[in-house]
Amino acid sequence: MKKKRALPTIWEVSDELWKRMEPLIMELDPPKETGRPRANPRNIVDALIFRIRTGCQWNQIPRVYGDDSTIHRTFQHWVELGLFPQIWALLVEECDALGLVDWEWQAADGTMGKARLGGDEIGANPTDRGRNGSKKSILTDRQGGPLSVVLAGANVHDAKLLDKTIEAMIVDRPRPTKAKPQNLCLDKGYDNPTGKAAVEKHNYTGHIRRIGEEKLSKGKKSILLVGGSWKGH
């Protein structure tokens, strides 16, 4: 089987991607007819990609992208406008129209991080000596394309977020049928009544790793998400 070529790392918006993003930005955040000319929105997007990829502070964004205060202020304004979820939905819809969203196999999981700046969705992180942290519950398709994300405190169990995560899908999910079932792969954190109830409620065929299964399945073939796709080993 021929190995799929990995997608290149995105550091700046391509011309093709910008053609899709620009109309939405201009619709939600049109330039003012008077006053100072605003910063180039494409440079702002490139600056945000740079910051997300590097994790640098705002004042460490290269000047080639513009003034860091302007970039940060524009980012906050776009968040208030709800721009980013709309861009996300637009791109997923286009991928789906091209048959690039693999609805047949999906996966969900939670990941915890620090919450140094606080926020509404924080809680004691059980893996970090009880310090405040947050959790992202993420749902993806087979290729790792994100379909949903929900934020919560780090002390909220993954299984309790599954129902909310499925319902928060950024686009309408196709209805599963016998001819086209949808499989949902989950780790042992969902091997409980709450996790199983969410799977059943949303008509998925669940593939939940059982608690203690790693001890039972030595030498047996199992399915895991590796490098963004599901593979047997």
Would you kindly provide a written description of the structure presented here, covering whatever features stand out?
The protein is α/β, with parallel strands linked by helices. 34% of the residues lie in helices and 20% in strands. The chain has 7 helices and 8 strands, in the order H-H-H-H-E-E-E-E-H-E-H-E-H-E-E. The longest helix has 15 residues. The chain starts with 14 loop residues before the first helix and ends with a strand. The mean pLDDT is 87.
In short, what is this structure?
This protein has helices spanning 15-28, 41-54, 68-81, 83-97, 158-167, 193-201, 213-216, and strands at 105-114, 123-124, 132-141, 146-153, 183-186, 205-208, 223-226, 229-232. With 233 residues, the chain is α/β, with parallel strands linked by helices. Strands 1, 2, 3, 4, 5 and 6 form a six-stranded mixed sheet that branches. Strands 7-8 form a two-stranded antiparallel ribbon.
